[in-house]
Structure formats: C-alpha cells, structure tokens
C-alpha cells in the first residue's frame, strides 16, 4: 500500500458493552484492536476486531450500520460517553481513527434510554422514533391531485430554514445524549420543518399537539434545556427548533383554550 | 422464447393515457380492502408504492431489513431528481427528457416505458412539494433547477446535497401516515429470503425476523419487489453494506427472469480506496465536475510527487483532450473508463495508483474560494473528513466506483415480471435506463413506479384474481419455510475457517478486475472458471458462528454473499453473451480505433432476460427485441 | 392539549412561575438594599410595605401559588426524567449541559428549604432568639432583627449557602425560560444567557453581601 497507509499503525484498547439479548444481562468486555491505521473508520476498526473474534470462534460485536457515509442514521454507539464520539457533524461511521492515538482506551456503549431497549450488544430498538412520526410527523396529503410545485411560493429563507431542520437523519443520538432521554430535538426538527412550510402549516397545531403527547407515551423524558442533544447531533440540528416547537405548542394551546381551534384529529380525516 | 413487453403501440404521446383506459381494469372500491399486497423494500419505490396502495384501500404489508423504512439507501442520493417541468424556459419538454433518457441509455430501453417516465416526472415534483420536501427555491419563491450529469437543460430539482434523503423522507412520511392509520403493517429488520409461487402466481414470501431469527411466511394476493440494486456484487461500491441481490435472486430462482445483469454503472467521482480493510466507497456528487478539472501526470515518475510540484505542461487533462465539447462533463461511463485507462497506464495517483486529480485551483482563481465553498462546501468537508486532505489547497483524488444497477428483474410495461402477481419497481427492475442511467433519473424512476404506475397496473392484475386464494398453511408456504430453514442450518453447520467477509472480498476483487469497467472474452471466461471454485470453497469452508434463533449478522451476510456468488456468474455470462459495447457495458473487443464504445444494433438491440436453470447450471437466455419507432438509433457521441 | 400534564405545557408553567419568582427576588433585593441606608432606611421601607396590606397579600398569594406549582411540577418532571433515563454511561462527559443545569432539583430544594426557614425567621418571626424591638419612631425594628441574626455565624453562613443555591439555580434558569417559552432565537440567545448569568451574580452579591458584611462587622449592629 502506498504513502497513504504507511502511517504508524496503532493498538487500541476497547471496552465494549456486550449483551446477548434484550432480556439477558450485559457487561463490559475488553478487546485489543491491533494494527489500526489512521484511515480506518471507527466501524472498520470494529470490523477488524470482529474478524478476529469470529476466527477465534467468539461471538462478534453486533452493531448497527448501513450506508457508512453519514446519511442513513443507522450507526449508533456511544464512544467515551458521547454518542457518535462527539466530533462536529460526524456520525460514528465517519469518525476516523486518526482522532485517536496509539494505546488509547475507548469505551463503546449502546444508546441508553428507556424508549430504546437494547436488542444486542450495541444495537438498540429505535422504533419509538418511527412511532413518533406515525402519530403526526407528516403532511396529510394524498397521492396525486396536488397543486403544481410552483402554485404555492416558498421564500428562500423559509425553504432554507425548513431544509436545516429536515437534515435530521433520525439516528437518535439526541435522545442518547439527553440526560432526560428526551426526543425534543428530533421532534422539534420535524415540527419546525413542517410548520415553516405553507404545505405543513395547515396542520401545525394538530401535529405539535399529537407529537408532544406521543413523546410521553413512548417513554421519552421532558426537556430541561440541557442542550446536550445539540452537541451530539451529527447533522448540526440546533435547539432553536425545540424553542420553535415550544412556541408552536404554546400557540396551539392558547388557540385551543380560547376555542379558536381543535387539535383533536377525527379519524376520518385520515 | 421471444418475450413481449406488452408495450402499447400507436402514438407514443398518448400511449400511457390510452393504456390506462383501454387495457387496465379497476378494482371496485368496496373490494379493495379484501386484497392484500406484500411490498418488499421501502426505499423510494417501495415506500411510495406501499403508501399509495394503502391509501387506495388495499391491505398492505411492507418489509425492510433496516430498523426503519427511512434508512433505505435512497437516502444516499445527493445530486437531484429530474422532471420535464421546463420552468427555466430553456427548451426542455417531456419529449426531450424522453429522448435524452433513451439516448443516454444507449438505445437499450423500451420506448413506451421511458415515455411514461418522462410524462409522470412532473407529477412527482408536485407530490413531493405537497409532502413538505424542502426543495431549493430562488429568491422569488419558485423552485430552483440545476443542470446535472451533462444534461443541456436545467431540469434537475434538488434539496441541498440530500435530495434522495428528502424525497425518501417524503415517501416515508406518507408511509408513516398509513402505518399510523393501520392500513400498512410495517415489518422492519425483516429480510425476505424466498418468494412463494403457487400455481405459477406469486402469492407470498418467506422472511427472517432479523431480531428473533424467526422464519415466517406472509401470504398476499400480489407481491411487489422494490429491493434496490446489486452492485455490491463488486464488494466495494457506493451502496450501503446491506444492499444485496438476495430478494431479486430468490425470485429469480423461483422463475422470474433476470434482465441485463451486465449493465452496471461505474460512477467517476468517488473517493479512492485507502486500504484493503476498506468496507465501502463514498460518492461525491457529480456536480463537482462542473468546476473541477480532471488530470493525471503526463510522466509516470511524477505520480509520487505532490500535485503542486507538477508543472502545468506536465499535466494531462485527458477528458478535455479527448472530448473537447463535453470535456470534464463527459457522461459517467466515458469519464470512468478514461480514468481507468490513465491508471492502468501507470499514471494514477494516491494509494495503489488508484486515483486521478480533480483540481479546483483554476475555478478558485476564477471565482474565489468563497464561491466554491458555497457550491461544494459540504462535499469538501466530507472529503476532508474521510481523507484528511484540504481540497481547497490540494486537488481532490477521485476514482470510479460501482454505483448503480441498470439491470434487474425483467418486467413488462405494467411492471409485472414474467411471474403473474410479481411486480418489480425501482432499481430492482430493468425497465427504463437501458445500458446506462443518466444522473438524477433513478430517483425519478423510483417515485414514478411507486406513486404513479403501480397503483394503476397492479389493479389490473388484482381485478382478475380472487382475493385470499392462498392460505398460510398451503403446502408451498410450508415448503418455502422448510427450504429457507434448510439453507440457514447449512450455513451454521459448516463451521469452516474463512469469514463471510473474506469470501465477499475475494468475489468483489475478481468481479471488479475482470467484469468491472472493461470486459474481455478472456477476463469473462476466466471469471466463469473461478466463480464455481469460490462457491465450492464457500460452502465447504465458511465460518458462521452463533445460532439461527438470535440477531446474527454473520448469518445475514452469509446468505447475501451466497446469492452474490451465484448472481456474479449470471452477470458475467450476460456480459460474455453481449458481444458489443454499450453504455456501462464495455467489451474491449468492441471499440472504435479511438477507444469509443462500438454498439451493434443489428444483433444486440434486445433486452437479455435470463431464466434460472439450477445453481451452477447455465441459465437460458430469452430475448425481448427493442423497437425504436420514435427515436432513430444513432451513435452516442460526446466528442 | 393540557397545560398541567403535557410535557411542554408544564415546561411553560415552570418558566412562568420561575420568572414570577425572579421578579419577586428582584423587588425583594431592591427593598433589602435599603438596609445600607441604615436602620431608618429599611425600617421605613418595611413599614411602608406593611402599610399596604392589599399589595402585600396579593403578592403573597400569587407567589404562594407560583412556588407551589413550581415545586410540584419540578418534582414530577424530575421523577419522570429519571425514569426515562435509568442507566448512565460508563464515561460521564458533557458537551453542553452544565453543573447548574444538571442539579436544578437540588439547588431548588436548597432554595425551598431556605424559603421555609426564612419565612419563619423574618416574616412569622417565630424562631427562638429573633430580636423583636421597636425603633425610636415606634416602628418594628427590622434592622436590629436582621443585624442581630447575621452577626451569628451559623445563620449568616446558612443564608450565604442559600444564596449560592439561588445563584446556581438561576444561572441556568433565567436563560432557560426564554428557550422554554420559545421567546429566543440564535441571535438573542447568547444575550439571554449572559444576561441571566449577570443577574444571578447580582443576586449572589446583592443578597450575599448583607449577611457577610454584618458577620465581618462592616455593617453596624
Ligand atoms: C451514493 C448514491 C448516490 C446517488 N445519487 C443519485 C442522484 O443524485 N439522483 C438519482 O436519481 N439517483 C441517484 N442514485 C440512485 C438512486 O438513489 C437509487 O437508484 C434509488 O434510490 C433506488 O431506490 P429503490 O427504492 O429502488 O431502492 P432502495 O432505496 O435501495 O431501497 C431498497 C429497499 O429494499 C429493502 N430490501 C432490500 N433487500 C431486501 C430483502 N431481502 N428483504 C427485505 N427488504 C429488502 C431495503 O431495506 C430498502 O428498504 C444514487 C445512488 C447512490 C448509491
Ligand atoms: C422552591 C423550590 C424550588 C424548586 C424545587 C425548584 C426546582 C426547579 C427545577 C427542578 C427546575 C428545572 C425544571 C426543568 O427541568 O425544566 C427549575 C427551573 C427553574 N426555576 Fe426553580 N425551583 C425552586 C425555586 C425557584 C425559585 C425561588 C426561583 C426564582 C427565584 C426559581 C426559578 C426557576 C427558573 C427561572 C427555572 C427555569 C424554568 C425553565 O426551564 O423554563 N426556582 N426549578
Ligand atoms: C440576605 C438576604 C435576604 C434578606 C436580608 C432578607 C430579608 C427579609 C426580610 C427582613 C423579610 C421580612 C420583611 C417584612 O416582613 O417586613 C423578608 C421576607 C421575605 N423574604 Fe427575604 N431576605 C433575603 C433573601 C431572600 C431570598 C433569596 C428570598 C427568595 C428566594 C426571600 C424571600 C422572602 C419572602 C418570600 C419573604 C416574605 C415576604 C412577605 O412578607 O410576604 N428572601 N426577607
Ligand atoms: S436531531 Fe440530530 S441527533 Fe437527533 S435524530 Fe436527528 S440527526 Fe440524530
Ligand atoms: S439535551 Fe435534552 S433536555 Fe432538552 S435541550 Fe436537548 S432535549
Ligand atoms: S452507517 Fe449510515 S449514518 Fe452511519
């Protein structure tokens, strides 16, 4: 291999959470990751460890991953106390070993939150985030028969704002990072994106009401404005979207209390 | 056998509208809820289909292997999605999009299908806007367009660098709404491992619950496959780790014809491989080629040097040299092949000489660093995150990587495979891209198939079948489960010495070197020699630990790898059979003196649809002749 | 939608009651600073205050309700949050959360206990050893009550501790209210944050100085 991988390789000590299944107890196990180059991604480093484990007839470390380019939101592990390792705008799969040095000891744990039960090792069940979207994280439009894309103008600032919010990849790191395991950043981003666009404004009050209610039912915590989520978010989603959700909620609450609107959706509206 | 695509005849302009009225039956609204449709795959194609069908009143069950439908690899699409809206008033039209797609596909696609795609492309944009997809807008509030992938009109709609993700989130939200309403049952972390065919019709699937390991059958009145592409057969590709040919291959084994497997697209602007440990390749949007100049050192001995030390006169801007009019914007297949040639001649740069420079210094000098940052900031960031190099200071290194599968299961005009009741959508089918796909047209196809085609065409099939014909305890269902269980236990019982990944790497390297960008009779025959050996060793010496009744990622990969090995053979055979060069398929024997692809319309203007005859056995080739009544065949020149 | 049980609804109540209490603390500080004008100053202030029973009682009722809701909800949500996040990470590293933000409940409890003690001390004046005199104008002598209390190390220190608790509570709390009510944006947020911190420091110094100065004898007994 050429100039690029002739770097001094490093050996890393991994302390990894191993848990055979949801209903079984788990504990930390220590492994050696040998001859890792700075160009290995964190997941490729885990691959190396796993290949050794398999050959040694041991159970490899189970971890979620798919695109390995920071966009699908599948990869998820807490590295030394911070989801995705805590480098700005970087998912775990994009975290490269050049951020570590020879001899480092690294703790690797799954997302921890009551709403995210552990399935195996580093893999958790994030279905609660999908359920949250299913309650109202959408625009109730039907397929076909919609207006022309340019029929309703959307100012560039609005479109950009909505895009900022829409960048969320649904990884759940915000929940994992939040001392209260709250899903406010995730929900706030969706509520803000759709409340900002004329297409979504129509249902904004019903949406925020339903989603806030669902968060509690799904076992997520409340927001205490720790802002830890913003620090951990690999897509740079800002807590201003939580503020926006609070605003949308308060507005809807007020309008409902004075009888101007109802936030209860009747089933028929589909 | 001569296949019939059942494409409508007559004036192409009203072919789809006439077909919908004349040839497609409707299902009585009251009866819709009696029919159950199984949708495998929830990417753009699957999610949009599941949502639309559920909305119409059918019972839908949807499946994906990720933990959420929102993660399908459609999210990776950066560039954008085409539509013939002609908003910029630059001469675009449905007919031009139709024409460009046929020509771009090197005249190997069915005209009527492509016309329909171009026709519904405009509805797609409207649909996505209505769902709240934050497309780029100009200051007046109108939708913004860019020209993409060498197109001469600006017809590409985009949402920052994440068009695919935003479109998928749109489809995902529509799907989520239906799940919330209980009209769609969603099965995530569930992998389809067999298609159940009863009396010649697709009536169910067998799946493995990836969490519990449970093997289950699901019965339905029709099955829709939207399971994506297969270029992971090269191991290193821009696809996600989980992308596989498994669903398609299992259907193929049950009788579905596999069409044009040799049409694979190699994308020119990917980040080169850094080492052998590497698990996947990352694509950088083609738009980079709008402002970057591609070059390699003229002299081999310069390759080791830092690019800055190589004087202008010692640089070879080979695309500009060979294709004066298109220059750095030459189509993907051409740009990729040119890069490979340079590297094969020993003038590649970076690790293993697998790379060429994409140089922005000229445009930075012309437009200033800020403009470049505005245009490509996120891409430069991504490049630095992965390579630790600053592309504002030092030219990027790029290299081609397998990216897209034009081939797929054969479908007729109604997107129905040769097995009645089995429909195939999106990248999983072979329909519209011919031998080469144009940029920003796969997202368009996925959503066209799902939102605007399948809702009509599936009705025509369902209207002619009795709902609930087959029950879960049907012998074929039970047999399917038994077969899947048999294969699973076989993997677990081998307990050999080599890991699944080692086999996948081995296969990938073989396929990339011999069946990748340039193919020859020798390289293909050699491959056909070697694959059976790999297969044999795999089934003798693969090591899969753990059990079947738990979350077992080795087991998942073992299954996918086994199918890739079998599929690789078919892909190679198809490439060998196609004695011409067209689009993504380049046979070194068939080129003009200047190295351009030499198509053979007289003998190869057909879709090659393969019928499975047993593992290791030679599949049977069926041909669907392609007629070009609206666009006359021409040599695709980008000089 | 429900104000008192929805997550964000309660958040709003926390913010509003919190702000009300902040207002009180501001007013109360201004009043207390009259102590630097000597016995006459604060005694006049106190007398004036009590000459307006309506105002006093309205404030008491409003504040009473505020404190009540604030406390009840704070305990509710703290319990809920602990339930939502039962297991902590092996490595405890924070990127944005602060000591103050993570200990709101405890600094709150400190303030709560303090308020209880403080009321018995200076308002009900039922604690043993509280000096209850009249000044020469026959007004109740707040000054001697306070000065006597603070010249005793124990009490003074107890007050200072409470003030530290208040400082921590508000150094997170004040900016937090703007986020909770969605009254901020990325531009104004830094302002609210520093503003909130300054105000809390002001409270710490303003209130804290009184017991300290009496203790070290810089304020005449
Ligand atoms: C990096 C990259 C960039 C691209 N950029 C563009 C672009 O700019 N413009 C453009 O038009 N196109 C682009 N493409 C192509 C385009 O993104 C894809 O072709 C398209 O999104 C495919 O969509 P799909 O729905 O057919 O498949 P996918 O989105 O891949 O979905 C496949 C689905 O099938 C499921 N699945 C697969 N196998 C099984 C199984 N055995 N059992 C159960 N479920 C299964 C998966 O879980 C997933 O839900 C790009 C592709 C890549 C890789
Ligand atoms: C009496 C006992 C008190 C208790 C137990 C208490 C507890 C708490 C708790 C737990 C929080 C955090 C709420 C959350 O997590 O969102 C909080 C917030 C707050 N408290 Fe208190 N507190 C008390 C008294 C006070 C007092 C006296 C003040 C003002 C002088 C005050 C001002 C605030 C403010 C401004 C907030 C921020 C509200 C928000 O986040 O929007 N608290 N309190
Ligand atoms: C060193 C600091 C403080 C001093 C010297 C002080 C002094 C006093 C005095 C003298 C009174 C009685 C006034 C009267 O009835 O004439 C009083 C009342 C009160 N103080 Fe303080 N105080 C201090 C800090 C605080 C703080 C930090 C709080 C709140 C968090 C507080 C809350 C109250 C309340 C609620 C009352 C009762 C008001 C009423 O009569 O309804 N005090 N304080
Ligand atoms: S907000 Fe950020 S951290 Fe939370 S899910 Fe979305 S991307 Fe992940
Ligand atoms: S970390 Fe948690 S407390 Fe709120 S600001 Fe973020 S959700
Ligand atoms: S694996 Fe897709 S974001 Fe990390």
Which characteristics define this entry?
heterotrimer, B: 639 residues, alpha/beta, five-stranded parallel sheet, 17 helices, C: 221 residues, mainly alpha, 8 helices, 72% helix, 0% strand, binds flavin-adenine dinucleotide, binds protoporphyrin IX containing FE, binds iron/sulfur cluster, binds FE3-S4 cluster
Major sheet: arrangement of strands of chain B: 5-2-1-9-17
* Cα-based radius of gyration of chain B, to the nearest Å: 24 Å
- Poorly predicted residue ranges of chain C: none
Number of strands of chain C: 0
Shape of chain C: globular
Number of helical stretches of at least 4 residues of chain B: 17
Assembly state: heterotrimer
Helix content of chain B: 25-40%
Write the element-wise H/E pattern of chain C from the N-terminal end onward.
HHHHHHHH
List bound small molecules: flavin-adenine dinucleotide, protoporphyrin IX containing FE, iron/sulfur cluster, FE3-S4 cluster, FE2/S2 (inorganic) cluster
The chain pair forming the largest interface, with residue counts per chain, is:
A-B, 86 and 88 residues
Distance between the amino and carboxyl termini of chain C: 56 Å
Percentage beta strand of chain C: under 5%
User: Main β-sheet of chain C: number of strands, strand sense, barrel status?
Assistant: none
Classify the secondary structure makeup of chain C into a structural class. mainly alpha
- Outline type of chain B: globular
End-to-end CA span of chain B: 39 Å
Helix content of chain C: over 70%
Q: What's the mean pLDDT score of chain B?
A: 96
How many β-strand stretches of chain B?
21
**Residue-averaged pLDDT of chain C:** 96
Provide an overview of this structure.
The complex is a heterotrimer of chains A (270), B (639) and C (221). Helices cover 35% and strands 12% of the residues of chain A. In chain A, a hairpin with a 2-residue loop joins strand 6 (118-120) and strand 7 (123-124). In chain A, the strands form 2 sheets. Chain A has a 5-stranded mixed β-sheet. A two-stranded antiparallel ribbon of chain A has the order 6-7. Chain A contains 9 helices and 7 strands. The N and C termini of chain A lie far apart (58 Å). Chain B has a 5-stranded parallel β-sheet with strand order 5-2-1-9-17. Chain B has a 5-stranded antiparallel β-sheet with strand order 11-15-14-12-13. Chain B has 17 helices and 21 strands. In chain B, helix 4 crosses helix 5. Chain B has helices at residues 15-22, 29-32, 44-56, 94-104, 111-131, 163-181, 246-253, 318-322, 332-347, 361-367, 369-387, 442-462, 475-494, 500-515, 521-541, 553-577, 601-604, and strands at 36-40, 59-63, 81-82, 156-157, 184-187, 190-198, 201-209, 215-219, 222-225, 258-259, 264-270, 293-297, 315-316, 356-359, 396-405, 408-409, 422-424, 498-499, 542-543, 606-611, 620-625. Chain C is 72% helix and 0% strand. Chain C has 8 helices and no strands. In chain C, helix 1 packs across helix 7 (153-180), helix 1 crosses helix 8 and helix 5 (104-123) packs across helix 7. The model of chain C has no long low-confidence stretch (mean pLDDT 96). Classes of the chains: A alpha+beta (270), B alpha/beta (639), C mainly alpha (221). At the A-C interface, helix 7, helix 8 and helix 9 of A face helix 1, helix 3 and helix 7 of C. Bound molecules: flavin-adenine dinucleotide (FAD), protoporphyrin IX containing FE (2 copies), iron/sulfur cluster (SF4), FE3-S4 cluster and FE2/S2 (inorganic) cluster (FES). FE3-S4 cluster binds at residues 178, 180, 182, 184-185, 223-229, 239, 242 of chain A.
């Amino acid at each position: 291999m050429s100039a690029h991988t002739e770097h001094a390789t490093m050996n890393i000590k991994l302390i990894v959470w191993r848990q055979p299944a949801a209903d079984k107890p788990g504990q930390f196990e220590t492994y050696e990751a040998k001859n890792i180059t700075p160009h290995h991604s964190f997941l490729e480093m885990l691959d190396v460890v796993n290949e050794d484990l398999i050959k040694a007839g041991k159970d490899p470390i189970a971890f979620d991953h798919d695109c390995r380019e920071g966009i699908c939101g599948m990869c998820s592990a807490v590295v030394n106390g911070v989801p995705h390792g805590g480098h700005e705008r970087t998912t775990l799969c994009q975290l490269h070993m050049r951020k570590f040095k020879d001899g480092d000891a690294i703790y690797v744990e799954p997302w921890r939150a009551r709403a995210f039960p552990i399935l195996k090792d580093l893999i958790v069940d994030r279905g609660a985030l999908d359920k949250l979207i299913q309650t109202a994280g959408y625009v109730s439009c039907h397929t076909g028969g919609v207006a022309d894309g340019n029929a309703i103008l959307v100012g560039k600032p609005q479109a950009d704002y909505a895009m900022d919010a829409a960048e969320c990849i649904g990884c759940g790191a915000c929940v994992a990072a939040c001392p209260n395991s709250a899903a406010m950043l995730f929900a706030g981003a969706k509520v803000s994106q759709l409340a900002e666009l004329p297409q979504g404004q129509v249902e904004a009050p019903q949406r925020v009401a339903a989603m806030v209610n669902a968060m509690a039912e799904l076992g997520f915590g409340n927001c205490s404005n720790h802002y830890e989520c913003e620090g951990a978010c690999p897509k740079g989603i800002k807590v201003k979207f939580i503020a926006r959700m609070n605003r949308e909620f308060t507005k809807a609450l007020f309008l409902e209390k004075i009888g101007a609107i109802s936030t209860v959706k009747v089933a028929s509206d589909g | 056998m001569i296949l019939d695509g059942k494409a409508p005849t007559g004036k192409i302009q009203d072919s789809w509208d006439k077909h919908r009225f004349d040839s497609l039956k409707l299902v009585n609204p009251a009866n819709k809820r009696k029919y159950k449709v199984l949708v495998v795959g929830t990417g753009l194609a699957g999610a949009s289909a599941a949502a639309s069908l559920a909305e119409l009143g059918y019972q839908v069950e949807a499946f994906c292997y990720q933990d959420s439908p929102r993660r399908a690899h459609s999210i990776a699409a950066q560039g954008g999605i085409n539509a013939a809206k002609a908003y910029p008033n630059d001469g675009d039209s449905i007919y031009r999009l139709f024409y460009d797609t046929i020509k771009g596909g090197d005249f190997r696609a069915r005209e009527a299908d492509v016309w329909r795609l171009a026709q519904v492309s405009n509805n797609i944009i409207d649909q996505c806007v209505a769902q709240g997809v934050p497309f780029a807008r100009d200051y007046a509030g109108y939708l913004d367009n860019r020209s993409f992938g060498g197109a001469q009109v600006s017809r590409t709609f985009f949402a920052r660098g994440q068009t695919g993700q935003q479109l998928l989130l749109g489809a995902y939200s529509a799907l989520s709404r239906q799940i919330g309403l209980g009209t769609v049952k969603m099965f995530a972390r569930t992998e389809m491992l067999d298609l159940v065919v009863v009396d010649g019709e697709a009536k169910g699937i067998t799946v493995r619950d990836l969490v519990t390991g449970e093997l289950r059958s699901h019965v339905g009145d029709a099955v829709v496959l939207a399971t994506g592409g297969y270029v992971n057969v090269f191991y290193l590709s821009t696809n996600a780790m989980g992308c596989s040919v498994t669903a398609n291959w299992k259907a193929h084994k049950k009788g579905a014809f596999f069409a044009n497997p040799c049409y694979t697209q190699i994308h020119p602007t990917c980040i080169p491989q850094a080492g052998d440990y590497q698990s996947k390749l990352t694509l950088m949007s083609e738009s980079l080629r709008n402002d970057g100049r591609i070059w390699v050192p003229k002299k081999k001995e310069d390759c080791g040097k830092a690019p800055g030390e190589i004087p202008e006169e010692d640089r070879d801007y080979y695309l500009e040299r060979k294709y004066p009019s298109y220059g750095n914007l030459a189509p993907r297949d051409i740009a990729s092949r040119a890069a490979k040639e340079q590297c094969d001649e020993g003038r590649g740069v970076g690790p293993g000489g697998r790379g060429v420079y994409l140089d922005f210094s000229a445009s930075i000098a012309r437009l200033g660093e800020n403009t470049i940052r505005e245009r490509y900031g996120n891409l430069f960031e991504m490049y630095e995150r992965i390579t630790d190099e600053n592309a504002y200071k030092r030219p990027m290194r790029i290299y081609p990587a397998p990216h897209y599968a034009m081939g797929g299961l054969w479908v007729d005009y109604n997107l129905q495979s040769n097995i009645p009741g089995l429909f195939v959508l999106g990248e999983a089918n072979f329909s519209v891209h011919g031998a080469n796909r144009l940029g920003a047209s796969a997202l368009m196809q996925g959503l066209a198939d799902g939102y605007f085609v399948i809702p009509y065409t599936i009705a025509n099939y369902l209207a002619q079948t009795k709902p609930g014909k087959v029950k879960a305890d049907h012998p074929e269902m039970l047999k399917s489960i038994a077969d899947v269980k048999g294969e699973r236990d076989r993997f677990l019982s081998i307990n050999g010495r080599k890991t699944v990944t080692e086999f996948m790497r081995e296969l990938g390297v073989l396929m990339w070197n011999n069946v990748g960008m340039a193919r020859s009779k020798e390289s293909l025959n050699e491959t056909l020699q070697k694959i059976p050996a790999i297969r044999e060793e795999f089934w003798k010496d693969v090591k899969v630990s753990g059990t079947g009744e738990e979350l077992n990622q080795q087991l998942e990969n073992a299954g996918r790898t086994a199918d890739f090995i079998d599929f690789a053979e078919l892909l190679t055979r198809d490439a060998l059979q196609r004695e011409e060069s067209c689009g993504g398929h380049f046979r070194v024997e068939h080129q003009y003196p200047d190295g351009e692809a030499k198509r053979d319309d007289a003998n190869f203007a057909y879709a090659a649809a393969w019928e499975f005859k047993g593992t290791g056995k030679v599949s049977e080739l069926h041909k669907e002749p392609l007629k070009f009544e609206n666009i006359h065949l021409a040599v695709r020149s980008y000089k | 939608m429900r104000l008192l049980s929805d997550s964000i609804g309660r958040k709003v109540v926390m913010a509003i009651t919190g702000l009300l209490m902040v207002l009180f603390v501001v007013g109360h500080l201004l009043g207390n600073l009259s102590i630097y004008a000597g016995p006459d100053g604060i005694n006049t202030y106190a007398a004036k205050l009590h000459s307006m029973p309506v105002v006093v009682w309205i404030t008491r009722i409003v504040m009473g309700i505020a404190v009540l809701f604030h406390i009840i909800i704070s305990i509710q949500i703290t319990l809920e949050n602990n339930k939502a996040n039962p297991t902590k990470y092996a490595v405890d590293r924070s990127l944005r959360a602060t000591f103050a933000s993570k200990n709101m409940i405890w600094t709150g409890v400190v303030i709560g206990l303090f308020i209880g003690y403080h009321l018995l001390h200076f308002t009900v004046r039922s604690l043993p050893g509280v000096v209850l005199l009249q000044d020469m104008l026959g007004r109740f002598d707040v000054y001697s009550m306070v000065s006597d209390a603070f010249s005793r190390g124990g009490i003074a220190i107890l007050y200072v501790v409470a003030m530290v608790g208040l400082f921590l509570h508000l150094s997170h709390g004040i900016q937090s209210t703007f986020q909770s009510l969605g009254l901020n944006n990325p531009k104004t947020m830094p302002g609210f944050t520093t503003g909130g911190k300054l105000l809390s420091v002001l409270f710490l110094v303003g209130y804290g100085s009184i017991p300290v100065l009496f203790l070290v004898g810089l304020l005449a007994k």
